[in-house]
Specification:
- The structure holds 2 protein chains of 2 kinds.
- Chain A is mainly α.
- Chain A contains 11 helices and 2 strands; from the N terminus they run ααββααααααααα.
- Chain A has one domain: Orthogonal Bundle (MetI-like fold), CATH 1.10.3720.10.
- Chain B is α+β, with helices and mostly antiparallel strands.
- In chain B, a hairpin with a 3-residue loop joins strand 8 and strand 9.
- The longest helix of chain B is centred in the C-terminal third of the chain and has 18 residues.
- Classes of the chains: A mainly alpha, B alpha+beta.
- Chains A and B meet through loops of A and helix 11, helix 13 and strand 14 of B.
Chain lengths: ~325, ~550
Amino acid sequence: MPPADSPDSALAPPSSRRDANAATIEKGSSLSRDAWLRLRKNALAMASLCFLVGIVLVSFLLPLVPGIPDPNATHPELQSLGAFSRATTAEGQSIFYLLGSDPLGRDVFSRILYGGRMSLAVGFLATFVSLTIGMIYGAVSGFAGGRIDSAMMRFVDILYALPFMIIVIILTTYFGNQLWLLFVCIGAVEWLTMSRIVRGQVLSLKRQEFIDAARSLGLSQSRILFRHIIPNTLGPVVVYTTLTVPAVMRLEAILSFLGLGVQPPDASWGSLIKEGADLMSSDPGLLIYPAAVFGATLFSLNFLGDGLRDALDPKSSKD
Amino acid sequence: MMALPLICATLSFGFLSCQRETRVERATRDKILLLGNGAEPKALDPHLVSSVGDANILRALFEGLVVPHPADDFADEPGVAERWEANDDFTEWRFFLRHDAKWSNGDPLTAQDFVYSFHRALHPDMASPYSSMLYFLKNAEDFNTGKIKDFSQVGVRAEGDHLLVCTLVSPTPFFPDVVKHTAWLPVHQATIEAFGSMTDSYTAWQRPGNLVSNGPFTLIEWRINAYVKVRKNPLYWDADAVALNGIDFYPIDSPFTEEKAFRNGLLHSSYSVPDNLIAGYREKANTPLRIETYSGTYFYRCNVDKKPTDNVNFRRALAYAIDQETIVKYVTRGGQIPAYGFTPPAAEGYDPPHVIRFDPEKARDFLRKAGYAKGSDVPEFTILINTLESHRNIAMAIQDMWKKNLGLEKVKIENQEWKVYQQTTQDQRYDVSRAGWIGDYIDPTTFLSIWRTGDSNNYTGWTNPTYDKLLRESFLLSNPVERLAKLHEAESILMDELPILPIYWYTRVYLLHPDVKGWHPLLLDHHPYKHLDLIAAKSEAKSEAKAKRQNSGKKGGAE
């Protein structure tokens, strides 16, 4: 039995063109390994990946190290200190401000760390939510076609037309101000574009020969959809996902400022940048440090997205 | 290839834009005052508003019986009333209305209009936030609370078209000072009833084109979250004396945005200054920064009907754990004074009881008395603030002080937009809510009367019969010393039960452009716009700067 064909099999390394009778055929789906091999050759993407892993580890693990100051402890008498300054609080406790202090005397460095936890968590989780909804919805819609497709896409159009901020505000006022809701809210709103992209992909894929082949082999609809169509949409989806993460992080910042997201004194990168932007004339560090970290994270997400696209979709890399 | 002309164009545009006159310069020439005004007005209806910014606009649109003096808080200027007189014990006041007072549609303004307005302000269906301001009138409280239905029993009547007689509950020598307040402004009956009944709120009567007013200016444009524009009212009785052609009020929530707007020549005066920039402005030569004594208190309301703030010892613990000194010195930084009582001490020789002082030991004692062995046992509660950077900073500082001094771990902060926040506070759907109270007239009663049972600005659910009784008794005393002693006694009760946590006494911190003339420091900050003028100070300043530059040789500007 020949393996279910995939569009890139012709270009894939010889490993997938093994003898059809070999015992290793069932393990032959080396799509991900091939992608990984291609990705490893892309230095920029690899550097970005390392940076992202690093920033995730630092944000989530470093605050556990003793000696990192409490990000919410205020020492108003030590306000607006510069970077690398050591100061003693009114209670006689000595604090080392690696990146200076804000107007309430809180440590900017530890606020950036804790803010990173929040921003990364919101960014990835909300993107994951939107990815899941968007992909399934789009794939079903495109695969089913006809009236179901029209109805499902008109529903997306309707949601598109609703001012998205209002939806989020309604959801938060209805369910109360909880953090998990922030993930769901943003995810629930961000899936629209994702579903359109996936649907477009599915429409073109389902007319291709390998799907006909799968169908003629008697595979079930759902197996064709989840095993053969969705994996082939991954290229554009991954690219769009890497663009969604920063959009979501930005959105979280806006919501936090409106009082619907992160509540003070907790911070996220977005809220830190917002606070810093207000004070940039008197305290530029408050803007520069979180913005630099945020910017670097967004850049590396984009580079990684580029690299992943090249790796997952060998056709485009030949251009 | 394309880049070069583009750069040239950008450069020349940049050059030109430097030369272009700013909005302030143009407005000064046109005599239009550009004012930053804090939040978007809730309404332009004298019987619906309660915030300072809204009152600022109303003072331009409407004119009451008596108007504030441009430079002296204690002086009264004639408004619609030409003159007024009281009987011997100050319980009956007669206001003689000027004959040339008109509404902006040409209708004559009569004493009957005032009776109608007071009726509307006091009507129970209107639920006006400031109805208690009119409780000075006899039977007004009973009418407002629905105990009597007949308005003719309330102590106000028109005798003919031009004499208004007010009969008061108690001797009030400062009554002319009281009627300057926006709650006493007249409204135009025909307009209100053209768009609904007397007690309908938020009808279209207050929209531009509909609103008929009697002040030095009329409303011509109101765009939500953009501006409120008022222009000179040619039918105003004293129109010749009004130097300005109009005022534009800009609702700019963020002090940072507002400060930038001021710096870029978009505003003549800002409503506030970001705390962080005060120090920088202080050092400037010819600084536009103004820091003036302001009759107001910054405090936190506690909801006494809700756990855990229903416990008096817990409220005391909260109050004593706030390090007010640190807040005014490092957070607000505008010369504010830590509040040891509720009423600011400036008011007419009255000094509030010295009760509140930062004392963590005492605070922990009270916490134990409240039944909490340690702070972490206290259930979660939320500090409600309206969205503003400085409120948030203060809230975060206090949150941390409570954590440090009492061990409270579960204090949250929630911010709401100004209008929503006002409603939430009014409906008492909060635990602890940030608040400010600015005096409406110069007397301690403006601060103390709001804590009476059921006062329309109480919002805490706190009631104390002894407090109410003391205030009532104080109203009946005409000897000022005895009266103030009674008020002092009342305030001691307030400061003992602490439905509110006093934080600091305000100073008015704002930026003022040198073109604005006739603007004097006022304790209540009620600047009568008709005495203001705009004269470009630029021409003088320019020649001065030139002379300076020549003296200092190659050195840069004075900044």
